[in-house]
């Protein structure tokens, strides 16, 4: 699958979407449907809500497929994320890691992840070590 990154802005905040990381939890559009609507194109329209609401909703993304940056900070080259790292297993789902992590795969390739990362616990993901939502297909229980 192609590594695609798309950006959508309301002038104050830019939402960054990486579709290959999305686990389709639907948290984004269930929480802020005026901005996130998978039935429309483009499916993200940040101009339809306040920056604070957008930031709060993006922070709830379990896979990290959605992230954001404030445009003023980007103009100053001061975009940075700092946070403690917290790990939380989701019942019948992935291991959620909140914070900044660097993941090293079997080939030694490093991937930097910020905000939230969902790791596979069921073993069925085709994107290991990351969750791709396969736990729902195989009815994973843990």
Terminal-residue CA separation = 29 Å
Query: Which stretches of 5+ consecutive residues score pLDDT under 50?
Result: none
Helix percentage range:
10-25%
CATH class of the largest domain: Alpha Beta
Number of domains: 2
Give me the secondary-structure category. Answer: alpha+beta
Q: Major beta sheet, specifics?
A: 3 strands, antiparallel
Named CATH architecture of the largest domain = 2-Layer Sandwich
| Strand element count | 8
Radius of gyration, Cα only, in angstroms?
Answer: 15 Å
Strand adjacency order, main sheet: 1-2-3
Order of helices and strands: EEHHEHEEEEEH
Short description:
The protein has 142 residues and is of the alpha+beta class. The protein folds into two domains: 6-75, Alpha-Beta Plaits (2-Layer Sandwich), CATH 3.30.70; 86-137, Ribosomal Protein L9, domain 1, CATH 3.40.5.
Give an account of the 3D structure:
By secondary structure, this protein is α+β, with helices and mostly antiparallel strands. The protein has 2 domains: 6-75, Alpha-Beta Plaits; 86-137, Ribosomal Protein L9, domain 1, CATH 3.40.5. Helix content is 15%, strand content 24%. It is built from 4 helices and 8 strands. The protein has a 3-stranded antiparallel sheet with strand order 1-2-3. The longest helix is centred in the middle third of the chain and has 8 residues, at 51-58. The model has no long low-confidence stretch (mean pLDDT 87).
């Amino acid at each position: 699958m192609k590594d695609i990154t798309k950006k959508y802005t309301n002038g104050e905040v830019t939402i960054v979407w990486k579709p290959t990381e999305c686990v389709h939890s639907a948290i984004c559009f269930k929480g802020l449907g005026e901005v996130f609507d998978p039935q429309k194109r483009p499916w993200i329209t940040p101009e339809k809500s306040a920056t604070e609401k957008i930031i709060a909703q993006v922070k709830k993304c379990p896979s990290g497929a959605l992230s954001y940056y404030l445009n003023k900070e980007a103009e100053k080259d001061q975009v940075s994320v700092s946070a403690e790292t917290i790990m939380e297993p989701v019942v019948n789902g992935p291991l959620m890691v909140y914070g900044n992590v660097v993941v090293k795969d079997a080939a030694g390739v490093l991937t930097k992840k910020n905000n939230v990362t969902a790791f596979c616990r069921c073993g069925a993901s085709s994107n290991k070590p990351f969750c791709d939502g396969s736990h729902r297909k195989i009815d994973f229980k843990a």
